[in-house]
Amino acid sequence: MRIKLLLQYGLMASLLFSVVLTTGCGSQKTVVVQDESQARKISKNDEERAFNHFSSANIAEMLGASHQAIAEYEKALKYDPASTIIRTDYARLLFRMHKIDKALEQSLLIEPKNSEVHLIIGDCYRLAENDAEAKKNYHKSVEIDPENMNAYWYLAGYYQQQNDVDSSIWAYYELARLSDTYRIWHELGILLGRNHQYLEARDAFFRSIEINPDKANINSYMGMATTYDAIDSTQLAGEYLDRAAELDPRNVRIFRQKLNMYRLRNNLEKSLEASRQLIALVPSDWEAQRYHGFLLYVDGHFDEADSLYRSRIEFGDDHPLNYFYLGRIANEKGDIEEARTNFTRCVTRDKTFADGWLNLGFTWRQNDSLAQAIDIYNQALEYIVEGDARGRILFALGATLEQNNQFHEAVTTFQDLISLNPNSDQALNYLGYMLADNGQQLQYALDLIERAIEISPNNGAYIDSYAWVHFKLGNYKLALAELEKAALIISNDAVIFEHLGDVHRKLGQDDKAHEQYQKALELNPESLNLEEKMK
User: Fold this and answer.
1) Which of 139, 225, 362, 451 could serve as a FRET partner for 462 with CA atoms 20 to 30 Å apart?
2) CA 528 to chain centre
3) pTM (2 d.p.)
4) For position 82, which CATH number holds?
5) DSSP class per residue in 355-400
6) Neighbouring-strand partners of residue 33
7) Do the domain assignments include residue 200?
8) pLDDT tens digits for 108-158?
9) Domain-embedded: residue 155
10) Is residue 161 one of the residues assigned to a domain?
11) Are 376 and 357 within 8 A, CB to CB?
12) Tell me, what DSSP letter sits at residue 216?
């Protein structure tokens, strides 16, 4: 490159530059830079001196003697100050030496400015954090020379930093035009995917793989899988991940992507398969082991999941989730005492783990020990002070208080929950129905349930609650219409049919009431209350 520039300087000097040197006795040398179309006027001696210093600067630069090269460039410019080539190389070296202000100053002196000069100016402005001027000069660089890859690289990077994906895509397409390499097409595929241009992203990744189908380009296979997954072609996505795994069977990222894809698609069978492959590769990844245990638990492989979590604990993994799922497994097997022991261990290790407290309280409720469950939930509230987790604890506490006939405490608890989360439709409905069922504050109850229905308008249970408030208010025909609507949404709820029977009784329609009670009794055959109503 340097030899080429030296030759270029020698051959083109008489064509590109025009300098008039005026000297006088006792006066300073005056240099006048004229329009390049005018004839060049520089002495042969000055031209040779400039060339010699320029040659020395190039050699010094190649040898790594940057400061010596700077001195030689400056000497060359004394003899030929209008030389575009000398000043361009001088400015470029100043830039590489991080003398940004001086590099910019020298670049701006060059006239006319070619593509390379605008590139240097753009670089200087970029490092000076003047993005507008940097972008302007990079664009001028490619306008003058549409083949200037460096300018396109900088524009691509600049637009990525600015999160201007469309412009970055344009720059990468230009790069792909100039250099049909798999890396450029891979980057283009990523950008197109980010921009939700999935078909174009697919084509870009396909071209990248076409150019280089080897292991070195494994990321394009994974990118292709991501693209197909985005357009719901999970089978094709899986095929590309399988191809990637064949090329690089020990690449953990491939199996993590497979697991994540199938997990989000709720494909339990494929998730388990990917999880088994992952933990075989990284048996020391305790998080992956715990997640595999969770998949086993969800799929009903309780013994295998139990063994996995116990082995984690034996190996020193004291994570609360190990105890939590041991508790869930024991609960599924009907061993309430074992479940309670593990949930206790879970919350001892993480006192802010809401699900641990909820399940621990549930083990007491299963034994009809409501007072102990209430005590557990109150303990949890000492550690869980905000957010959705506290709301779930409050809901469990309120429901348990109500079941324990602590009506006023339950009302206060649900009101606390609604203050914490005014849009908790479950809490709004529960409190509203509870008040209505007890015949208390019916207008307030109606307001609560209407708010719940506004949040979830097609919830059959909420519509049943709405109808029940109107039943308590004596609006029987309105209650009947709403209950019939609820029964269409939920056809297997004994409470709705019991309520229908109650409304028909109030309307004097005993045959219809008997029919609805019969439906309710079929759904809940152990209800003594329904048997009494049937009589």
Assistant:
1) 362
2) 53
3) 0.72
4) 1.25.40.10
5) HHHHHHHHHHHHTT-HHHHHHHHHHHHHH--SHHHHHHHHHHHHHH
6) 19
7) no
8) 999 999 999 999 999 999 899 898 899 999 999 999 999 999 899 989 988
9) no
10) no
11) yes
12) G
